[in-house]
């Protein structure tokens, strides 16, 4: 059994805590500029390393996975299960968010003076998000499907935001390989298989830097929020405390109710063991606020620790990182109702059902949109006729909540991979770090 401080998840937790302490000390001691200039860049380097290998990992592992299936019918069946479960869990997430925000009524606790001050402070951010949202709303309903098919693969591979296009090309290449004689396709399969093994080893090397990268990222988040005035950040958190609590309660309930039910329906896995196996990936997602950047680690932990076969993980997880946004969808539901409450608007049952539909579609359609969370929230607000200026009320704590909802997004991706693997008979034995 490993000593506790040698286990990766504990090292990441220590990095998070020390980064938090450093960030608070920097705000109080007045060395925020030093932290931003000389500490935060190491966190950025760590994220860039993870993003660097995301595209080749998805490409290689998915091609190997498709060719190992050697059956297009099985591939389409797995795809149907994956998208279906993702959509169902997203709708449950939105419903839970609406229930929590209607029970707590967090908008009623926001002082009018704070409301006016925040709306004027973030006016520039609102205008930019509103413009991007208008561009999204003006697109054709089938634009999402058009965007999946790239006209230039190398252009797609140069941007992690186009991961669905990389997935499409990888599946297409895999199908093409299994359609030709085996002796001709074998060299390609061997190449991508070897490339996949090399990338997994690179992931192991990058994860040696995880505690230091997480420390730098956390310290950077705190100084970005507080600057040299810690009381400003604390006042902001206090004013938005009920809204923050509503989002966090919703996220926790979604994990405890929906994902535990998913395990009971589709496997014998315990939620506690699942979290123990996935801790490094979830903590990394929390610190980076990026499902795509965390994808290499999510895939490694799912395969090596959860027992998900590579055929499933290489297919389900890349898709989940781009279209499965349970945490983000729940946040959008809570945020939309909170803004309406703070502005004194009563939402009808029809408007709240519109939130369910719009946020579900937004979670899928947001894949290639920069700053997707806030931009798609604008789309939701427009759909229920709530002034988009109200987004200013939540921007102050959005960075913190973004970390939390990303962790839930990654949890959902891994949970669905377990469910799909079990239904396909491709779920092996779990391996926990302390065994």
TrEMBL record:
Entry keyword Zinc-finger: no
UniProt entry keywords in alphabetical sequence: Glycoprotein, Membrane, Symport, Transmembrane, Transmembrane helix, Transport
UniProt-listed PROSITE patterns: NA_DICARBOXYL_SYMP_2 (PS00714)
Tree of life domain: Bacteria
Subcellular location: Membrane
Major localization listed first in the record, in broad terms: membrane
Membrane protein topology class: Multi-pass membrane protein
TM region positions: 12-33, 45-70, 82-104, 163-181, 202-222, 242-266, 330-349, 355-381
Signal sequence bounds: none
Keyword hit for Lipid metabolism: no
PANTHER family xrefs: AMINO ACID TRANSPORTER, SODIUM/DICARBOXYLATE SYMPORTER-RELATED
Protein name: Dicarboxylate/amino acid:cation symporter
Origin species: Fodinibius salicampi
């Amino acid at each position: 059994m490993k000593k506790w401080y040698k286990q990766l998840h504990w090292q990441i937790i220590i990095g998070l805590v020390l980064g938090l302490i450093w960030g608070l000390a920097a705000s109080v001691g007045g060395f925020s500029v030093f932290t931003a200039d000389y500490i935060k860049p190491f966190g950025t380097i760590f994220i860039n390393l993870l993003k660097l290998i995301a595209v080749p990992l998805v490409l290689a592992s998915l091609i190997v996975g498709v060719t190992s299936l050697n059956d297009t019918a099985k591939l389409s069946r797995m795809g149907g299960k994956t998208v279906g479960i993702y959509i169902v869990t997203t709708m449950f997430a939105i419903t839970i968010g609406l229930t929590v925000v209607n029970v707590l009524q967090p908008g009623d606790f926001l002082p009018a003076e704070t409301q006016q001050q925040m709306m004027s402070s973030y006016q520039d951010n609102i205008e930019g998000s509103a413009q991007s949202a208008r561009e999204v709303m003006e697109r054709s309903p089938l634009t999402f499907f058009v965007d999946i098919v790239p006209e230039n693969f190398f252009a797609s591979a140069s941007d992690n935001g186009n991961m669905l296009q990389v997935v499409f090309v990888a599946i297409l290449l895999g199908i093409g390989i299994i359609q030709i004689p085996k002796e001709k396709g074998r060299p390609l399969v061997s190449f991508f298989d070897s490339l996949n093994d090399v990338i997994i080893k690179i992931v192991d090397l990058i994860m040696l830097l995880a505690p230091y990268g997480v420390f730098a990222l956390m310290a950077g988040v705190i100084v970005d929020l507080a600057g040299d005035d810690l009381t400003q950040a604390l006042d902001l958190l206090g004013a938005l405390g009920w809204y923050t609590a509503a989002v966090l309660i919703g996220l926790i309930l979604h994990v405890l109710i929906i994902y535990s039910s998913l395990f009971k329906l589709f496997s014998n896995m315990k939620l506690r063991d699942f979290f123990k196996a996935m801790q490094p990936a979830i903590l990394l997602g929390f610190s980076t606020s990026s499902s795509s950047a965390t994808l290499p680690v999510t895939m490694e932990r799912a395969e090596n620790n959860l027992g998900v076969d590579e055929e499933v993980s290489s297919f389900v997880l890349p898709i989940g990182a781009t279209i499965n946004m349970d945490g983000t969808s729940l946040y959008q539901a809570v945020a939309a109702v909170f803004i309406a409450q703070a502005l004194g608007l009563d939402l009808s049952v029809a408007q709240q059902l519109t939130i369910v539909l719009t946020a579900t579609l937004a979670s899928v359609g947001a894949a290639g949109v920069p700053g997707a969370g806030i931009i798609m929230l604008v789309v939701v607000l427009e759909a229920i006729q709530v002034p988009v200026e109200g987004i200013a009320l939540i921007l102050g704590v959005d960075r913190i909540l973004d970390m939390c909802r990303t962790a839930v997004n990654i949890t959902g991706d891994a949970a669905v991979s377990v469910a799909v693997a079990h239904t396909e008979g491709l779920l092996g034995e779990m391996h926990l770090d302390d065994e």
